[in-house]
Every structure is written in structure tokens, then in C-alpha cells.
Specification:
mainly beta; globular
Length: 162
């Protein structure tokens, strides 16, 4: 008998369960994309600054399977934030990501299980692998990038004033 692991995800309106390692999961008559959660890659080098300013958590580098995602945060003069993502995969051409949808969901604790049902912002990956979210308010977020039969999930995106 073959053993499999089942992942159970809790959402505000119920639960979703699916076995690990499958390319797609059938839930009733609907196919759910294979979800991969990105992990934050810690930077080896530490920046040295002369001022007493707090060290920034940005930019951030995430990895999931062979996919790399670099996230950069900048603040405009108006005070609004711009979140720029650059997605790459050594096993795929950039064209494979072009036109894919990236969504930013509010999440009080930054966890996918507790995110809002509807995205706050939705953008397309451009022909250079860039994702640009403009006018992002301060808050906690989950980003989901829809990659065909896969969903790349990035949790714990906290945008703070300053």
C-alpha cells in the first residue's frame, strides 16, 4: 500500500485538502492548481550603515522549487508604496511567465490561510519577468502568482510606514 501525505488548509469559509506531490488536485469537479510556498532566502552579506536608521527588510529573495522571486519595495514622494517583483527560473524562459497573473491579498497575520477572498491588487507579469504593484497601502499581505497549473504563494509580506 502506498502512503501519501495530505495537506489541509484552513480558510475563513472552510477547509481544502489535497495530497502532496501531485501536479493538480481534483476537488469535486474542479481542478485546483498545485500550490508551492516560497521560502525567504536570508542574505549572507549584511549592509553596514553610518546612521542609526533601522535595517530594512527589503529587498527580499524568495525561492520555491526552481523559481526565484526578488521583491523590492520603494516609497514615492506621495507616500505610496510600489512593490516590484522579478521572477526567474533557470529551467524556464522568461516568456513562460509573460502574462501570468499576480495577486496581492490583504492578510491580517500575513498567512495564506487567513487572507481575504478577493485580491486588493492584480497585475500581469510583463515580458521581462517584472510584476509591479503600484499604490500599495501599509499592511500585511499574501502574494499569489498563478503559473498555469501551479500557484506560487508568498506569505508574510509586511509593508510598514517609514
Amino acid at each position: 500500500m502506498r502512503q501519501i501525505k495530505i495537506v489541509v488548509e484552513k480558510y475563513a469559509d472552510g477547509y481544502v485538502a489535497y495530497p502532496l506531490g501531485l501536479k493538480g488536485v481534483v476537488n469535486g469537479f474542479h481542478t485546483i492548481a498545485h500550490r508551492i510556498f516560497a521560502t525567504l532566502v536570508k542574505q549572507q552579506a549584511q549592509l553596514v550603515v553610518r546612521s542609526e536608521a533601522a535595517e530594512s527588510d527589503w529587498p527580499r529573495q524568495y525561492r520555491a522549487d526552481s523559481i526565484n522571486l526578488s521583491l523590492h519595495l520603494s516609497q514615492a514622494r506621495s507616500g505610496e508604496y510600489l512593490l516590484l517583483g522579478i521572477i526567474t527560473d533557470p529551467n524556464e524562459s522568461i516568456e513562460a511567465f509573460t502574462g501570468m497573473t499576480a495577486e496581492l491579498y490583504p492578510a491580517a497575520d500575513g498567512k495564506d490561510a487567513n487572507r481575504a477572498k478577493k485580491p486588493l491588487l492584480s497585475e500581469q507579469v510583463d515580458d521581462l519577468g517584472n510584476i509591479v504593484f503600484s499604490a500599495v497601502p501599509v499592511g500585511n499581505y499574501v502574494m499569489i502568482i498563478h503559473l498555469g497549473e501551479r500557484e506560487l504563494v508568498i506569505e508574510g509580506l509586511e509593508i510598514q510606514p517609514g
